[in-house]
């Protein structure tokens, strides 16, 4: 028989059950986080195996079983069971779509929109090289030392693991340098299409300088879209522009952006400022400001982190990239909020900054002189 004292006990019992469910969820979450390395390493595996191209087949994207995929890639047939394990795991992260046969245990896979970013396009580009670039041996050696950046920020984990800075390390390794160029081209092309469709700040520019332009892919696309630009200057390190291809209307110039920047009506840069410290950013921005005429502009495309942290895909992608920068390039370089970029620009002589959101990852920051 239930007495008057029983309701509080029942309430306490319900809270205990709820607490137990929360603990179960928490334990599940930490197990997922602890095993998270399986995600990028499996992604690296499907890129190396060229799984996306095998499924895509010129646009058919017809669902294939693991054994059918391997038959297109590996003469010996490979191990379909192990490939299916990889495909299932990446399906749970939205890279593939799984198609189940209700009358058998047969599983087939096609590409989602995420998976399609790994398909090689007509220019030989995709996000696949970006994936591979992140998982090279020299970079992987740095990751177990991330905690050291919190103890001593004078040396980034990459240097601790490899004995020298990433940029100089890449410069001495032809294969790594070429992979970096392919990775940046694969990321740049779709982003630049978004910029050229959604940003109209190139009007009236006759001479455009691309600082850190690598092979000149961005400048080539800008000049194709805006033929009124009479001259393009692709400015990067001498060893980088030495390998750059000939592009109509573009002059490749080698130099050091920390010393000076070529003059122009406008200056463009993409993903340059985020890999440097505040003091280094000020040097770059100041040299850009000096090279611009009154009324000129610096058009900087950079990831910008939100003021408030949340669990959205955008915030996670940006903050994960921030840890990559801290680990590989400089322990004190970082991604910044829009206001932090604005304050850096004002500190070196720019009169203001406008932001344009044409992409979920990058933001176009227009600094006015």
Automatic annotation (TrEMBL):
<dbReference type="GO" id="GO:0032259">
    <property type="term" value="P:methylation"/>
</dbReference>
<dbReference type="InterPro" id="IPR036388">
    <property type="entry name" value="WH-like_DNA-bd_sf"/>
</dbReference>
<dbReference type="InterPro" id="IPR012967">
    <property type="entry name" value="COMT_dimerisation"/>
</dbReference>
<dbReference type="InterPro" id="IPR001077">
    <property type="entry name" value="COMT_C"/>
</dbReference>
<dbReference type="InterPro" id="IPR029063">
    <property type="entry name" value="SAM-dependent_MTases_sf"/>
</dbReference>
<keyword id="KW-0808">Transferase</keyword>
<feature type="domain" description="O-methyltransferase C-terminal">
    <location>
        <begin position="148"/>
        <end position="351"/>
    </location>
</feature>
<dbReference type="Pfam" id="PF08100">
    <property type="entry name" value="Dimerisation"/>
</dbReference>
<protein>
    <submittedName>
        <fullName>Caffeic acid 3-O-methyltransferase</fullName>
    </submittedName>
</protein>
<dbReference type="GO" id="GO:0008171">
    <property type="term" value="F:O-methyltransferase activity"/>
</dbReference>
<feature type="region of interest" description="Disordered">
    <location>
        <begin position="1"/>
        <end position="20"/>
    </location>
</feature>
<keyword id="KW-0949">S-adenosyl-L-methionine</keyword>
<feature type="domain" description="O-methyltransferase dimerisation">
    <location>
        <begin position="31"/>
        <end position="121"/>
    </location>
</feature>
<dbReference type="InterPro" id="IPR016461">
    <property type="entry name" value="COMT-like"/>
</dbReference>
<dbReference type="InterPro" id="IPR036390">
    <property type="entry name" value="WH_DNA-bd_sf"/>
</dbReference>
<keyword id="KW-0489">Methyltransferase</keyword>
<dbReference type="GO" id="GO:0046983">
    <property type="term" value="F:protein dimerization activity"/>
</dbReference>
<dbReference type="Pfam" id="PF00891">
    <property type="entry name" value="Methyltransf_2"/>
</dbReference>
